[in-house]
Amino acid sequence: MSISRRSVLKASALFALVPLAPKLLSANEASMSEHADKMGKVMSKASEMKYVTSLVENGEVVTGAHWGILKATIKHGKIVSSNGLNTSKEKIKNPLQTVVADQVYAKSRIKHPMVRKSYLKDPHNSKPELRGKDEWVRVSYKKAIELIANAVKETREKKGPQAIFAGSYGWKSSGNMHNCVVLLQRYMSMGGGFTGITADYSTGAAQVMLPHVVGTLEVYNQQTVFPVVMENSKVIVIWGANPMVTLRIAYSVTEGSGLEFFNNLKKSDKKIILIDPIKSDTVQFLMDRKNSQWIAPIPNTDVAMMLGIMHTMYTTGKYDKKFLDNYTTGFDKFLDYMLGKTDGVVKDTKWASSICGVDEATMKDLAKTMFENRTMIMAGWGMQRAQHGEQPHWMLVTLASMIGQIGLPGGGFGFSYHYANGGNPTAKAAVIGGMNVGKATSGGAAWLQKASSVNIPVSKIADCLANPGKVIDANGGKVKYPDIDLIYWVGGNTIGHHQNINNYLKVWQKPSHIIVHDAFWTASTRHADIVMPTTTSYERDDISMSGDYSNLNIVPMKALVKRQYEAKDDYEIFSDLAEKAGFYKEYTEGKTPREWIEQFYNTALKSGKPQGISMPDFKTFWDKNMPITFEVPEEDKTYVRYSDFRDDPILNSLGTPSGKIEIYSEVVAKMNYDDCRGYPSWFEPVEWLGMKNKPAEFHLLSPHPELRLHSQLANTSLRDKYAVSDREPIWIHEEDAKAKGIKNGDIVRVFNARGEVLAGAVVGKHVRKGVLKLSEGAWYNPDSKGLCKNGCANVLTLDISTSKLANGNCPNTALVNIEKYKGKVEKVDIFEEPKNMRDFRI
Ligand code: PGD
Prior knowledge:
The chain is of the alpha/beta class and 842 residues long.
């Protein structure tokens, strides 16, 4: 599939650079790290590297994180406060920017390399059932490196590279140097291969489906830009998105333009229609004005609602036949389905209303409003994190095709307005390089080739661990699960982000070795065998672009303070492991982090020159400690997605087999799946409020949290602002609460056949009746019976595939019960160090 110049792949840094020729560290550059191992030993070449170039004792330092370009104030070598750089009164505040110090000095920091007691005793008979319960033993860094090196070597030799899972999915930290997932995969691919992953948890269904429909991933593409929307759109439909929350972060470093856009949108006179079962922060923010409408369908039924709207359009003749004829294929087949010719069910508003719970008049009105006005449909990704998640975005493209405004200024659809400032115009930028997975060393080359073919869909990790050798359908092909015996995780909190945790923990006992690096004692580190303490991004130098789509700035990410405790950079750990494996030189290319950073910067400098982009040399940039901001060309301020295609659908055809928007896909139809047809359609989810014999009473939605990034920042003072009775808040409708005898602030038990959690009740009108909202990312904190004291939503969610096509994850398809908790309330203690630790120091 072709990916346009403006498209962004999260993994792009992986392929950003071809490794340069090895450059050796000169003797005087390789000074001893002031943070070298506390045990007073020189462990290896890597610990001889100079890791942080200079630190400010008193003053302000600019750095970056997912939550923006930051300015931190340092006093006597300690961080005392942080904020966004250039935060002004007029700007929308981003509270995530204020807790840098809380992270660095968190009680939950991992201070030393730690090994599970039974594993240390005998890695071959380590009682994996004790993961999460066993005692922890502090070991020296040297011992930990030895244990990891042995486990990796032995697994690869005895069981083959595919037995090593290093897919290691997660949001890690920003920074092109200390990209820990790439650093792990660089170590693993140079060493001889590993099992990886395909897709991600964010857009697992849509990113696999949409290439069949529009020829690109679409979810990670530059959108029709904000200024064009502001000038031309009359109606904005925000469908299942919460941009006022999700735009607080970006995969690189957010540049903040998205929050400003929605703030300006609020001040405009445009009609804003918000469709969401939850009265999210965005709904609350935008309902506080004239001309806004909130519609709350039953969860997982948006596709039925779209069909009701489209049926109205068709029967009233208010749709663009010309657009369908010229730019799409297969509307006739879809029409047969919509009109009930294929299954005898007419998908009119009456039918739709009985499923989605939205009244017929509202749908009819929506059909008219959308067709008669320049309408931009901005959809989020939550509704595709549900069973049959392939359907909503396909159906939305079909709806937008009927409206016929795709490719017109301010019309059509956009699937990334809520993410990483997807509507900010692209700057004329010089783009920095990034760490890459490198080249395999001799002996590894063949396996590197092979490694890339051993990939499992990211959300199938538990299924894969449980069923080695099983063959599953995947997007028209087959995937055979490898037999995983070693898991290596960095930059993710998998015991928390994956669905149905209780099931996951059972299969998590299968591998012989589990190694996790993190700065904090998350549930994932607590369920490992070997834990390596890493630096936070505030304790190391790095560099990043800011603006995943706009490339607006290059941000110096300077270390704010020295490394805490025995924390090391992932780079150092993998360099030492590479040394043990005999490819230190290839892994490091002889470079310190600072030298890599300079190289990444120089890539931009070099590529910028012929384009007339002037940039200072690296030293000037680094010493100045301010971002470089690029100019945005006038033409980019008028960018309209799909305008080229609209102008000339033959010359600028899409990357689909027909070159057009595929409302019917022959390719998908030929897959012959029972859970995904050749055209978008409604499927009843396995758990939803409209089903007969419901296994539980309420629909649980677990959207992204307001004051965290997934599980990151849960261990900061931001938690004091949202925790209710020291638990994750759960939103419940006041009538439901009354019926259950639940009051605001009560501790409630939320449960189903998969598990149980405690949460703190927030009673009000912020959810549709019958719906509960418990944000994902609360740290999993089980009591002795497995009940999560802290309210981790994934104890309750369903671990099934969206369909055979995408195999996406489905956390938003889950029914649960809720009751006031009457049992003994135990303290949440996940934000402290584990109690069962011993200082052994081998
Ligand atoms: P994070 O909390 O960002 O969550 O899952 P993900 O695992 O990405 O975890 C990142 C971890 O990396 C943190 O523990 C952090 O401390 C660590 N880390 C940060 N920097 C570094 C570093 O430099 N080195 C090392 N070694 N570690 C580092 C998120 C995932 O959750 C995603 S992306 C989505 S979209 C899914 N969403 C949902 C959902 O909507 N609903 C539910 N129920 N579940 C979900 N799960 C998924």
